[in-house]
Each structure stands twice: as structure tokens, then as C-alpha cells.
Amino acid sequence: MIKIILRIIELAMSIPSDLLASENITFEEAIALTQSLLSEIEADRLSQAQIQQAVASLVNTHNGARGFFVTYLTDDRHLADEPSPGVLDALREAPEIVAELLVKNLAMSAAMVVYHSRHHKPEMAAGSQRVQGRSRHLIQTLQIPACQTLAEQMLENLRTGQGEYEQFFDRWGYDGEQKAAIGSALSEAIG
After folding, report:
1. Looking at residue 162, what DSSP letter applies?
2. Which residues does 109 contact at the CB level (< 8 Å), separation at least 6?
3. Are the beta carbons of 78 and 115 closer than 8 angstroms?
4. Residue 64's CB: how many other CB atoms inside 10 A?
5. pLDDT per position as a tens digit, 6-57
6. pTM for this model (two decimals)
7. Distance separating alpha carbons of residues 65 and 77, to the nearest angstrom
8. Main-chain phi, psi angles of 25, to 5 degrees
9. 117 with 85: CB under 8 angstroms?
């Protein structure tokens, strides 16, 4: 009898397969899947266990995690302002991928606030500020040791002009003011 009850609970908690990412998901598919997932979360149709299962399936791969974060952090809904326990638990399941993307999202959004402000685009600057705030909040809430390590490496690279993130900064062509904003955002995030 107990086995039957446990199986019923297990089936009731399983998530529709169309909300689970495959191992070979593309970046574009991950964006679309995350949009669907956020709509389901907003409509309160998923338990925290189901949210955790869906998000974990996304952040388990680099493309899935990239698609998740680009959608989750920029979404107009307020779901990312106070992440649910299911989202937080899922993000902790893939600490290396999550840490790298959170630190880079924090850096890039800080640099884009400067860029959009310079070009008199207040709405775009506000959007980048929102991504920066959400990224910082996740870094501080998750307390993943890899976030601290990567942020410190990036800060050291900013101080010395050499290191792991030299190519990252060169690729995006960040100038001194943008690098200063990145440094401030990282320092604030990791205390």
C-alpha cells in the first residue's frame, strides 16, 4: 500500500516532458523552454520540486544554462527578483556552470549600464541594471564558492591587466569606465 501511495505522489510530482531540457539542447531552444517554464511558474502550475527539476535540466548543460539565464535575468516579470526555492536548489546542482555564467552576466550587465547611459538610452540602461541586480542577488543568495573564486579572478585581472579573463575583456572591448563598473559590481557581489 505504501509503495502505491509513493508512486502516486511521484507521478503527481513529475513534470511534463516538454518542460525538460535535453542534453543536446540549443541556446535558442533553451530560451524558448525557459519562456514556457516562466509562464508555467507565473500561472502557479508547478510545484517547487517540478520547478527544480525543470531548471536543473536546463542548467546542466552550457547551452541550457546560457538560454536559461539570458531569459530569466531579463524577463519583465518579477520572478527573478525573488527566486523561488526550486530555482535556487536547481542552480546549486550545477555550481561550475552557474558560477561562470552568473559572474559573467554580472560583469557584462555592469558594463552595459555604462554603455547605454553614455548613449542616452535610459530604458536599456535600466534593463541592464535589472540584470546586474538580479545576478548580484543570485550570487549572494546561492553562496556558491566558485562564484567567489571566479569573481576574485576577474577582479585580479582588472587590477593587473593579465589573467584568466583577459580574452573576455578584450572580446567585448570594455574601456576603463566599464572595467571600473565591473570591478565595483563584483566587489559588491562578493563583499
Report:
1. -
2. 73, 128, 129, 131, 132, 135, 185
3. no
4. 28
5. 444 444 457 788 889 999 999 999 999 999 999 999 999 999 999 999 999 9
6. 0.89
7. 19
8. -65, 140
9. no
